[in-house]
Amino acid sequence: MQMPTRRIWVFSLMLLALAGCGFQPLYGQRSAAGGGSVQDELAAIRILPIADRSGQLLYNELRDRLNPAGKPADPQYLLSITLAEQREELAFRGDETATRANLQLSARYTLRRATPDADSAETVLATGQVRTTTAYDILESQYATIVSIEDARARAINVLSDDLQARLAVALSQVAAGAP
């Protein structure tokens, strides 16, 4: 009976520590002075077109996540992304034909204010790079291999968009809080 009581005390102390350090949920509502939620800020991002087929897929995934109500009429932020795709063959048969490969996607992003201020350094809010690697099988059938590659690409795009959404949300919450 002592163990559950100890856990309750530890849990209560952790909650008090979080409340005392100024913890706020990332997607929660801010106070009246701080404005709307991070989700509202994400919805104000205009995503610039991304080159190639993988770029189109990433653009569509991000648009669905960041702008669920459609493109913002008056965007506050512009997001530019450069996407690179690389394939590496891994496993080989005795006749040296590949049977497994990795697909690596890497996205460099820059988040800027839509209306540049007098100081150009202030217009860039966040920059960075996200990467992911997915594996796929190289099969006897060419069609099956193409389907396998497309599935790996879709999985990689999904991971990239999750990571980008989280990084952008953190960057916008820091901007709203006035952090450098």
Name the helix and strand elements from N-terminus to C-terminus, one letter apiece.
Answer: HHEHEEEH
- For the report, how would you describe the main beta sheet? 4 strands, mixed
Number of strands: 4
The quaternary state of the protein chains shown equals single chain
Strand order of the largest sheet: 1-2-3-4
Strand residues, percent = 25-35%
Task: Describe this protein's structure.
With 180 residues, the chain is of the alpha+beta class. The chain has helices spanning 2-20, 38-43, 52-66, 142-177, and strands spanning 45-47, 77-92, 98-113, 124-137. Strands 1-2-3-4 form a 4-stranded mixed beta sheet. The chain is flat, with a radius of gyration of 22 Å. The N and C termini lie far apart (49 Å). The model is unreliable at 30-34 (pLDDT under 50).
In brief, what are we looking at here?
This protein is of the alpha+beta class and 180 residues long. It has helices at 2-20, 38-43, 52-66, 142-177; strands at 45-47, 77-92, 98-113, 124-137.
